[in-house]
Amino acid sequence: MKHKHHIIPKHAGGTDETDNLVELSVEEHAEAHRVLYEQYGRWQDKLAWLGLSGRIGIEDLIRLAASKADKSWVKTEKGKKALKDRWDKRRASGKDKAWNKGLTKETDKRLEIASENNKHYRELGVLSNIGDHMRGKEFTEEHKAKLSEIAKNRPKIRCEFCNEEHIKQMYIRWHGDKCKRRQSNV
Predict the structure, then answer these.
(1) Contact predicate 11/44, CB 8 Å
(2) What range defines the domain where residue 180 resides?
(3) pTM of the model
(4) Strand, helix or coil for residue 105
């Protein structure tokens, strides 16, 4: 099986012109991207090399590409306009609206039926609330120790007003703008 390889990769500004393409076997294609990665250090070449050589699967490729991709174009005027145009087109086609948007149990029979079904299934024990599967569960001491160790390593933020340390998520949600010393300084 032959692959078409871009001598100058598209992610580096290469084109689909015939003088920029060469046919290679899968192994040669992987090797070409390995050489490009070692020469220029671009993450796209590394992913191409690892994927073509079979060292990582498609799920890992997608995950790594998504984490490495430069999303800064969204912050440019051109990017903002492109996203706005895309969303406007979606709205015009009606694809972004949920079937129940703006409806209540009082105004739509389907929601009333769904609500009654939920109550019925909860009574039967078929449907549970979020977290019900963990309620009342006993943890082993080993598991508790692991959870405690993980909690110790969470990043913390120190409040500039009261000098207390808080886990980042808790600081943002509960402490940040609501710090009592901050309010007394304002």
Answers:
(1) yes
(2) 149-185
(3) 0.41
(4) coil
